Amino acid sequence: MYNDLLKFTIKTAKKAGKYVMAEQKKGLIIEEKGKNDLVTNADRASEELIIKEIKKKYPDHAVIGEESSFIRKSDIADYANAEYIWLIDPIDGTTNYAHQLKEYAVSIGLFKMSKKEKSKNFQYLSGELIVGVVYAPGMDELFSAAKGEGAHLNGKKIQVSKITEVKNALFATGFPYKNQGLNLPYFNAMMGRCQAIRRLGAASLDLCYVAAGRFEGYWEFGLKPWDIAAGALIIEEAGGHVTDTNNNQIDLFGGDTFASNSKIHQETLDIFDKIPRAHLA
Known about the structure:
CATH superfamily of the largest domain: Fructose-1,6-Bisphosphatase, subunit A, domain 1
Distance between the termini: 42 Å
CATH architecture of the largest domain: 2-Layer Sandwich
Structural class: alpha+beta
CATH class of the largest domain: Alpha Beta
Strand content: 25-35%
Number of domains: 2
Shape: globular
Order of helices and strands: HEEHEHEHEEEEEEHEHEHEEH
C-alpha cells in the first residue's frame, strides 16, 4: 500500500547517508547548540538534502526536521493543514558522528494525518506512522518498515526477541542534554533487575535494535518526534510495543518513550511504577 513511499524514503536515506559519510572523511565544522548538544555542517546540509528531495517529489507534504524545525514560521500553519508530515533527523547521534564512531543514523519517518486540530506544539494532531527508515551508513545497516508490511534490515525481515523476563533482558537508555539526572532513578531501578543496560547515543538505533532483537527494551526522556518516529513504526512492525513510561499511547511530541519486545513490557512498567515521580514534575 505504501510501497512507493517506502522506496522513496529508502533512496533518500541512503543518499543522505552517503553524503554524511563523505563529509565525515573530509573533516567537520562542529558547533554547540547547547551544553553537550553538538551540530555539524553535515547535519544542516543533510537535512537540506532530505527536504529538497521530499519537496521535489511531494510538494504538498509538510516537513519537521531537527535542525530547521520551528525556525521557518511560515511553515507552522502547514503542519496542521497537511495530510502527510515527514519527521526527519539528518544525523541522529551527532556526538558519535563527530567523534568518528559508527553509531549514528539518518532517520526518516512519515506521519499520515487522520484528524486536524491546530496546536502550536502539535500534540493534538492524530493519525498514524506509515513509513519509517533508519539508515546507519557507518555500518551499512538499513532498517525499514511500512505500515502493515513488517520490518526489515537490509531487505530481510526482522522480529523482536523472545525473552520473557526482565532479569534476562538487555536494555538501552539515554540521558537528555538538559536535566540529565531525570533518568537516574530509572537507571538505578533497572540496573539491579535486568541483565545489563547499554547507551549507544542514538535513539533511532536503540529503537531499531529492539526491533531486531538485539535489545529487549529501551526507554528515554526528552526525545523529539524526529528521534522516534521511524524507529517506533519499525518496532511495531517487528512485533514489539511502544508507549510512554506510564503505559499511555506513544505521543511523538511527548518526549517520554518506552519500547520493548512486548513480552517484558508490563514487568518493566511495574518497576517504573514504583519509582517516585516527583522529579518528573
